[in-house]
Amino acid sequence: MYSLLLAVIYLIFISLGLPDSLLGSGWPTMQVTFGVPSSYAGYVSMAISFMTIISALISPRMIRRFHTKWIVIVSILLTVFGLIGFSFSTSYLMLFLFVIPYGLGAGAIDASVNHYVANNYSGSVMNFLHCFYGVGAVISPNIMALALSKARWNEGYRWTAYIQIGILLICILSLPIWKKNEGNSDSQEEAGAGIREALKVPGVILTLIAFYAYCSGEATCFLWTSSYFAGTKSGLNDELIASFGSLIFGGLMLGRLISGFISNRLGDRLLIRIGIAVELIGIVMVMLPFSHYLPAAIGFVVIGTGMGPVYPAIQHMAPSNFGKKYSAAVIGLQMASAYVGSTFMPMVFGNLQQNIGIEIMPVYLLIFAVLNIGLLERTYVVLRNKKV
Asked: Any idea which fold 2-387 has?
């Protein structure tokens, strides 16, 4: 039953990834439909992320009051409402009515399932879990591409909602499995340090800014990769441009799959260093001045592969870096920092590319990659000096 429950949890994270890449892959066509500037995708993305922040901040209270299984079911239902709402939107402003269930559902799933897995499964499982997030995020741009070739962008959201409904039904059928594991896996932990106390621990603030930098680059890729190809490569049709939205997610999936096999042997810090080095190679590949789209497409896959282990590894090493007393509060703060980066920095890039040109995207990603590794390395020095 324990293995069967793990399979259901992996499926839940596929459902978490499904909605995340639809806006980026569909936006070049949606923008024309709504008659708005390309930068306006950033405001929709920001609104979704803002609702996700709210959901993540209230998730500890929900976790204390409700079992994870019920949070998951309600959250997936909320994302279904959001996706169907997007599919019926006939104007740009209508999208903002449905970002509320869209974002609330995603944040609650992310926080509750990460908490559940962190307390009941190994670090290797955590990497595989985030790999399955990538599976969902790879699938949906291709759904959007199929919708653009056969129907309209609206159907891309509607078909994704149907898949979410299928996953929701499986989760409902799996309720007895969760019940069998509640005895030892859904128990509540003793209260640790609070957020204010955790912020005073040496190295925590540096880690939060590093996490913010990582997610700023990741979210920018989520939203703007398809638009980058639309703005820098000529002769591409709408379906091919939409499919490019899956490149970064495919890379993330590959990076986390590899990390799941080697993380216990290499350790979190070395895994992060290797990952960011690979990410930098990918950024350089995107910068190369080739007119054909293939080198840049490979570059975005390499960027995603490098990014893959960073998010799970930063969260996984929180207890060893800061102690179990502070780990819960630190992980909560890290998720909040992540969502702040996801909320604002794609919008900032949207305005930059509108005024300067979308070809600056690899430079923008380079800044955050260097900031990420620089702050993490500084954190390790602080922690080493603390031990001495």
From this structure: Growth Hormone; Chain: A; (1.20.1250)
